[in-house]
């Protein structure tokens, strides 16, 4: 099964067109015959204040839409973990490979996955690095997230290859995904 995780803020769906494009690409990549899903018709936001996490499960057709209050996870430390064989080009509901890597985080809050000598993503978010007042994001993420796509299109994020040895040259890092947006980690550190 495939998944879209969509942020609903005070009853308003955030950045729906980016999720719709990714859903369309995923259905077209996996299925010859499928029922197109219109996320705007499928999602009925709860009329509550605050941040709601909307999970849309789908395959050839819409399977489920679920809403829950969003509880952000605190992430300040990342452990570098190598995983040359991991494939997460599509947002799957089953995250066994990522969960297995996460078990190697030790006392860090999350992991930073290195694939074939290049930095990719954490287990829950894309990443960006600050250098000379510019934000850079890995050119080859595991998953091209919707927030990453939006910030690359706007010119705020610049994609480039980032090797693990370069990490110490950056001034800061930030996590980004549909639920948190773009969050610089002020006291963050990356451990080996």
Please explain how this structure is put together:
The two termini are 33 Å apart. With 192 residues, the protein is of the alpha+beta class. The protein folds into two domains: 2-69, 2-Layer Sandwich (D-amino Acid Aminotransferase, Chain A, domain 1); 77-191, D-amino Acid Aminotransferase, Chain A, domain 2 (Alpha-Beta Barrel). The radius of gyration is 17 Å and the shape is globular. The model has no long low-confidence stretch (mean pLDDT 96). A five-stranded mixed beta sheet has the order 10-9-8-11-12, with helices on one face. The relative contact order is 0.17. Helix content is 18%, strand content 38%. The chain has helices at residues 16-30, 39-42, 96-102, 146-153; strands spanning 2-9, 12-13, 51-58, 62-69, 77-82, 110-115, 118-122, 126-131, 134-138, 157-160, 172-177, 181-185, 189-191.
């Amino acid at each position: 099964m495939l998944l879209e995780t969509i942020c609903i803020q005070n009853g308003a769906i955030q950045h729906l067109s980016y999720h719709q494009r990714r859903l369309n690409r995923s259905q077209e990549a996996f299925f010859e015959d499928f029922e197109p899903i219109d996320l705007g018709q499928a999602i009925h936001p709860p009329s509550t204040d605050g941040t709601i996490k909307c999970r849309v499960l789908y395959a050839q057709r819409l399977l489920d839409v679920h809403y829950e209050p969003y509880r952000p996870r605190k992430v300040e430390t990342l452990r570098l973990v190598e995983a040359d064989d991991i494939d997460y080009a599509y947002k799957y509901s089953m995250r066994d490979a990522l969960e297995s890597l996460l078990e190697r985080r030790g006392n860090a809050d999350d992991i930073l996955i290195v694939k074939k000598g290049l930095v990719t993503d954490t287990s829950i978010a894309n990443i960006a690095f600050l250098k000379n007042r510019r934000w850079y994001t890995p050119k080859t993420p595991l998953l091209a997230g919707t927030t990453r796509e939006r910030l690359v299109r706007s010119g705020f994020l610049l994609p480039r290859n980032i090797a693990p040895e370069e990490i110490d040259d950056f001034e800061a890092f930030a996590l980004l995904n549909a639920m948190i947006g773009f969050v610089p980690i002020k006291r963050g550190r990356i451990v080996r």
